[in-house]
Amino acid sequence: MVLAVASKGLSVGYEEVDGVLWAVRDVSIEVKAGETFCLAGESGSGKSTIAGAIAGILPPHTVTKGELYINGRTVIRDETRDYEGIRGRVVTYVPQSPGASLNPYMTIEEQFYSVLKSLYGLNKRESKERAKVYLQMVELDPDSVLDDYPHELSGGMQQRAAIALALSTGARILVADEPTSALDAHLRLQIVEELSRLRRETGVTLVFISHDLLLAGAICDRMAVMYAGVVAEVGGARAILEKPLHPYTLMLVESTPRLDRRKQLKPFLGEPPKPGELTNGCPFFNRCPSRLTVCAVKMPPLMSIGGERHVACWLYE
Amino acid sequence: MWHVGSTNDSMHVELKKVNAGYYTIEGFKSIRRKYVQVLNEVSLRIRDGERVAIIGESGSGKTTLLKVMLGLLQPVSGEVWVLGQNIYNMPKRDRWRITHKIGYVPQDPFRSLNPRLKVVDIVMEPLERSKFSEKERVERVSEAFKMVQLHESVLNYYPSQLSGGMMQRVLIARSIVHDPEMILLDEPTSALDVSTQAQIISLLNSIQERLDCTMITVTHDLPVAQYLADRVVILHKGSIVEEGGFEEVIRDPKSEHARHIILSYTLSVNSTNLL
């Protein structure tokens, strides 16, 4: 089986004055080629840091440990990071806010030219032809969009243009970092449908980052739920949402508002620990209603529960 | 004479054919002002103690509607009655006597707190024009802090030392410290994580129950509205296209746009039958 992305004990931190703050700790995940895999979690869970590691866009002051493989090639081995020929060509990135990430001084055509010239040395005519193909793929009319500046497009059109731009690189792994969080419900639906259709038609691997569990459940095959830089639970997206095992996932599902009054909202108190406040125990210890004595002192490993389901909780030892 | 009471005193808010908008500047070589109408003929009645959600997409005029109710944006035509007074038919300097009775929680907690003030000064600000003594003010701040379940040590913090959820709690404390008759909330949970969002929803409902006040929530998030309101008003391109009880609108939407909003939400998350 070809793995599009595989990490082994990957830790990613940021160098600060007082030392390294580890945003991601000892994460081992596998993403199969052609699947939609979601990294779900709240702010500070480390999901965007992993997205940055996969896409090869970690900032310079980042510190890494462990290993990360893209299509079988090592891109991170401890301190060494090498994305030559991978970044932009094999893996590409769709940012959270298209309005802020598209260059406001360039037309859409110029943005395609800028990317395709630097990656493949295409000339203006060639890049325009390729842009037309990918803009049509995301159901934008190239004749009206190519000459537009980003501010002339609506939020949904900007996000489609950003997806077309990412796909035009020919990359087989698409990392979409909260691509719908800045959009209204009807635009969110359009973009989710667009990404699902593109995945079916082109066979790309989609790594979807989201804080919205229900949306992740609707679009993804498998999901990893993250909490305070570690993976709490991995498995089929539907299975996780229908029967969450980790106490954190369970609380997250129960506190998500749904269009159904019968399901009462169950808020849980407290906040996740900050990177500098982490101990050797389970990071969810202080908020966990099912905590054991061992949880305070020892971090549970990701344990297999059968099938593709794994959970990091001492309750399942 | 501006002191003319509303014909119906049980109405906390009554808008009659309100048209409102903004002036923008356009042009490069020759700059000209252009009026952009946002609200079109909006008529709305909200009773004392009601929990109402105003739902719409970005640009539908939700926040503009709140500004009109808060006395911050004078409509070009129509009447705005708030707590029994026609607020734009009175001298501007007196308007605060009415709008002061409204608690307001702005959209983005990260950009709504003055970074140079300590939390205690931020929360106490609405009491500045009140008749309360210094001791009473401190007591009121302490009471508001208890209601939003924040520890009193937070009073000496600056906003930069707070998490998103704590900032939102501070903003809510600020909005209730003067015992308002009505609370207006502009997307109160859109910047928060799921777990914090659930805490804030539960907190707002307990505060509304305790103060027995009118609560008007602006949101684009249908499920959040469900937990914060009994009645829903759907706004589209500056006009009210539908209003009614939440259950009734969800079950049997009459307008094309309401159907569209409900379908959008349902389809985007419902492929796993989780609703």
What does this structure look like?
The complex is a heterodimer of chains A (about 325) and B (about 280). By secondary structure, chain A is an alpha/beta fold. Chain A has a domain at about 5-35 and about 45-85 and about 210-310: Rossmann fold (3-Layer(aba) Sandwich). Chain A has helices at about 45-55, 100, 110-120, 125-135, 140-145, 155-165, 185-200, 215-220, 235-240, 245-255, and strands at about 5-15, 20-25, 30, 35-40, 60-70, 75, 80, 90-95, 175, 205-210, 220-225, 230-235, 305, 310. Chain A has an eight-stranded mixed β-sheet, sandwiched between helices. In chain A, helix 4 crosses helix 6. The longest helix of chain A has 18 residues, at about 185-200. The radius of gyration of chain A is 20 Å and the shape is globular. Chain A starts with a strand and ends in a 6-residue tail after the last strand. The model of chain A has no long low-confidence stretch (mean pLDDT about 90). The N and C termini of chain B lie far apart (about 55 Å). Residues about 270-275 of chain B have low confidence and may be disordered. Chain B has ten helices and ten strands. The longest helix of chain B has 18 residues, at about 195-210. In chain B, the strands form two sheets. In chain B, strands 6-7-8-3-9-10 form a six-stranded mixed β-sheet, sandwiched between helices. Chain B is of the alpha/beta class and about 280 residues long. Chain B is globular, with a radius of gyration of 19 Å. Chain B has helices spanning about 60-70, 90-100, 110, 120-125, 135-145, 165-175, 195-210, 220-230, 245-250, 255-270; strands at about 10-25, 30-45, 50-55, 75-80, 85, 100-105, 180-185, 215-220, 230-235, 240-245. Chains A and B meet through helix 7, helix 8 and helix 9 of A and helix 7, helix 8 and helix 10 of B.
